[in-house]
Amino acid sequence: LEESKETIARNKLLREKSNELTQLTNQLKDANEELIEKDRQKDEFLDTVAHELKTPITGIRAATELLLDDDDDMPQEIKAQFLKNM
């Protein structure tokens, strides 16, 4: 009878520990999903920032190439305006 009480007590303790581990597992899954979502949002943000930076840099590069072109007949006023815009 005493062994049965001890076995029942151990089983109860094991069930409680199992329930705790199940709850912790669920919490870890939730945290992992949240981190995955934040990582995705970070990637989207960085892609947007990179795109937004490339747009003006592309214009500046094109204007610089035009200004450095020795074979052009671009008037000085337009060159000065390109430099001012840059």
From TrEMBL:
The Enzyme Commission number assigned here is: 2.7.13.3
| Domain Signal transduction histidine kinase dimerisation/phosphoacceptor, first and last residues per copy | 41-76
What organism is recorded for this protein?
A: Maribacter flavus
Q: What is this protein called?
A: histidine kinase
Record keyword Electron transport present: no
Q: Which reaction does it catalyse?
A: ATP + protein L-histidine = ADP + protein N-phospho-L-histidine
Alphabetically list the UniProt keywords.
Coiled coil, Kinase, Transferase, Two-component regulatory system
Q: Does the keyword Transferase apply?
A: yes
Coiled-coil boundaries? 14-48
Query: What are the protein's GO molecular function terms?
Result: kinase activity
Q: Which InterPro entries match?
A: HisK_dim/P_dom, HisK_dim/P_sf, Sensor_HK_Regulatory
Q: Give the matching PANTHER family.
A: HISTIDINE KINASE 1 (PTHR43711:SF1), TWO-COMPONENT HISTIDINE KINASE (PTHR43711)
